[in-house]
Design brief:
The chain has helices spanning 2-14, 20-30, 36-65, 72-102, 108-111, 123-146, 152-170, 173-193, 195-201, 204-225, 239-263, 268-295, 299-322, 327-369. It has 370 residues and is an all-alpha fold. Helix 1 (2-14) runs antiparallel to helix 2, helix 8 (173-193) packs parallel to helix 11 and helix 13 runs antiparallel to helix 14. It starts with a helix and ends with a helix.
Length: 370
């Protein structure tokens, strides 16, 4: 919202609606400079989470380096002790933070509604992040010690399932992002473990499409979960997960269409499959474009969609031109097309940013008058 306000103020300055003498004051009003407390809080959060990650990684590397010297009991005692310390720290810190608020004279119906700032970069979520890492180390330790014979994908899948309550409880970007990464890794290892089986059921392009669909479902889950009016919507307000899952999904769909363009021969027996893949790609990107252009305006998804379409156009043009005899002319034409697509996309996105900023300012002014 602050970025949209600054963009609107900048356009007002260019239109002459704000004097040069008042421009700096208007910018500071929309986006004030961080004070000393903000900087201290940022540095404290960085050190806190870096410390949790280093402690967790240090324990894992310590056991790996001294694997033969440590007994089975010692290995389990180290991991379980650290896991218990993280869980205990989360409980004690959460209880200490809630205790002062319980003494306030606040209605019961308002106490049941969580505040959005309760989910974020704080000490309890740092404790949960360390507990999630130790839980994965414990699962790996069980598999290595007792040689359960489980496939690698099962480790990551079970890990993802076990940290799901922690991620929901924290409503924190890093925990949800860790869960999304584990889901993708387990899916990739699962398809790799049964490559001989899935080669008869799923082609390579279909497996790529499956990755794109899984990440798209994750993106839509977080997008719609935070828009619905229910008590747990703040736990899904994770912009980092939405952006990462959408990037992974559109990267898979772009890879899919490029694969189709370059590796499929345009014969009668394969034209039907090409049409299905191309239709799937067009429908998916068209739906995303319509949604984020008109229903939920946002620049980042539209940028990804335009980038994917531009790559598909350049790939199709490259296939047709590079097969011709005039290679130099083909490279020149491709370069001109890339420049044209990039310039056109940037110009349109810039105009769209101005439109979104003006709409946001009008909505904020209307809400203020109400």
């Amino acid at each position: 919202m602050m970025t949209q306000k600054r963009s609107a103020i900048w356009h007002w300055f260019l239109d002459g609606k704000i004097d040069r003498a008042n421009f700096k004051a208007a910018m500071l009003e929309a986006y004030p400079h961080p004070n000393t407390n903000k900087w201290q809080q940022l540095i404290a959060n960085l050190l806190l989470y870096l410390g949790v990650l280093l402690v967790s990684a240090g324990v894992i590397f310590f056991m790996a380096f001294n694997w033969d010297a440590l007994s089975h009991l010692s290995k389990f005692a180290i991991v379980e002790t650290l896991f218990s310390l993280f869980i205990g720290g989360f409980y004690l810190v959460s209880r200490a933070q809630k205790k002062p608020h319980s003494r306030l004279n606040v209605p019961h119906n308002q106490q049941s509604q969580p505040h959005p700032n309760a989910y974020g970069w704080n000490l309890p979520n740092a404790m949960l992040l360390g507990a999630c890492i130790m839980l994965g180390a414990l699962l790996a330790l069980v598999g290595q010690t007792y040689q359960t014979g489980a496939d690698p994908w099962q480790l990551f899948a079970i890990w993802a399932v076990l940290i799901l309550p922690f991620a929901y409880m924290a409503g924190f970007d890093l925990l949800w992002l860790l869960l999304v990464v584990l889901v993708n890794v387990s899916l990739g290892l699962y398809l790799q473990s049964f490559a001989s089986v899935f080669s008869f059921l799923l082609e390579d392009t279909q497996q790529i499409a499956l990755f794109g669909l899984v990440n798209l479902v994750i993106h839509l889950l977080f997008t719609f979960a935070k828009r619905l009016q229910w008590s747990g919507r703040f736990r899904f307000n994770c912009s980092m997960v939405e952006a990462t899952s959408l990037l992974a999904s559109l990267s898979a769909f772009t890879w899919l269409i490029v694969w189709v363009i370059f590796d499929f021969s345009y014969h009668f027996d394969t034209s039907e499959h090409i049409a299905y893949y191309a239709l799937f790609y067009l429908v998916t990107l068209s739906s995303l474009f319509v949604w984020y252009r008109y229903r939920s305006p946002a620049l980042y998804p539209l940028t990804l969609v335009l980038t994917s379409i531009s790559i598909a156009i350049v790939s199709l043009l490259s296939r047709e031109l590079l097969d011709s005899h005039d290679t130099i002319g083909g490279f020149f034409l491709i370069a001109m097309v890339v420049i044209g697509l990039t310039s056109g996309s940037l110009y349109w996105l810039k105009q769209l940013q101005k439109e979104f900023a003006q709409t946001a300012m009008l909505n904020s002014e209307g809400a203020a008058h109400e």
